[in-house]
Amino acid sequence: MRYYIIAGEASGDLHASNLMKAFKEQDTEAEFRYWGGDLMKEQGGTLVRHYKDTAVMGLWDVLMNLNSIKKNFKLCEDDLLAYKPDVLVLVDYAGFNLRMAKFAHEHNILVYYYISPKIWAWNQKRVKKIKATVDRMFTILPFETKFFEEHGVEVQYSGNPVLDAIDNRNHKDESFKDFVERNQLDGRPKVALLAGSRKGEISHNLPDMLEMVDRYPDYQFVIAGAPSFTIDEYKPYIKEKNVAVVSGQTYELLQQSRAALVTSGTATLETALLNCPQVVCYKMWGGAFTDFIAKKIIIKVPYISLVNLVLDKEAVLELFQKDFTIDKLDAELSQIIEDGERRSEMLSDYEELHKRMGGAGSSARTAKLMLDSLKNDMK
Question: Tell me, what is one Gene Ontology molecular-function annotation carried by this entry (predicted)?
Fold first, then answer.
């Protein structure tokens, strides 16, 4: 089979690469062309554009990059038609991928969507576009599967690929001492900083996260370096603070950390599944205005983190926009970083999360479901 795959950020690159690996194990003639990152590139095929050159965040960033976005759409449309794949596999990245779904459908190319756009959280009217342009949806969260079924979308649940990635992580049995020595860190307990994988996320969230460094001198704060960023790109934020950067080892860092400050997204789920207490932090352009628009008009769910959405309760504190203040961040971090009631409660909620999410094997199941569906859809 010839697969054209589009992933637009670090998490999509990770899960798409695992899916590609599973495809190769089940389809010996698999060929790939894709938009993604380094992990997908390791699986072979042809990388058309790297996500670091295409990712934008928030309304302001979109407006400032309209010309490049239009050029990317045109490039992708022409490349898709030239490649003539058996199926277009879209991975999250709703703003770009929903448009490509429409284009592919209009040109009689099968469209499979893996890792649903978060339309259940905002702009639920887009489910009509999905029903009209996506042949099959493959979901990774039970509550979103139910959402699509209720709207008449052809949908299948295959488990969550985060569990595969965590299960396959490097150094899973490594000791704290070995982790510290291997990365040339000091011996203090660690606090992980997961500030996002896009420039906008890092610029809006990392500076406030770093305000905690001087308040917790007995801990070493370590930035989980995004795949598309160099250590030098973090230096303007770190300045003179005693903060380390560890790249390509987010899971290893989380399993060795006492706590984490995490931007909302897949990272919140990964942090919880690795049993690291966390504070969810998210700030973007617009301040109080964006906060009002988001909560009153756009966001249609009670929580912004996947942990809380899966558990249907506020298991982890969410500091969003105007609620993301230094004092609130400090107050919550102080309660989860040391042993006590709040930390124990959160870890107990994590146990329930593990039960609801199930086990590893999602990538292989998804590949099989897609291949079985292709046999029927291509008749």
Answer: lipid-A-disaccharide synthase activity
CA dist 155 and 130 (Å) reads 11
Indicate the pTM of the whole model: 0.74
Q: Does domain 169-357 bear CATH number 3.40.50.2000? A: yes
Q: What is the pLDDT of residue 59?
A: 46
Query: So what's the pLDDT on residue 293?
Result: 42
Token readout for 75 is 């490039």
Indicate the domain borders of the chain: 2-164+360-377, 169-357
Per CATH, the homologous superfamily of domain 2-164+360-377 is: Glycogen Phosphorylase B; (3.40.50.2000)
CB 122 within 8 A of CB 300: yes
For 77-89, how does the pLDDT look when each residue is reduced to its tens digit (9 = 90+)? 999 999 999 999 9
Residue 62's pLDDT band, with cuts at 50, 70 and 90, is: low
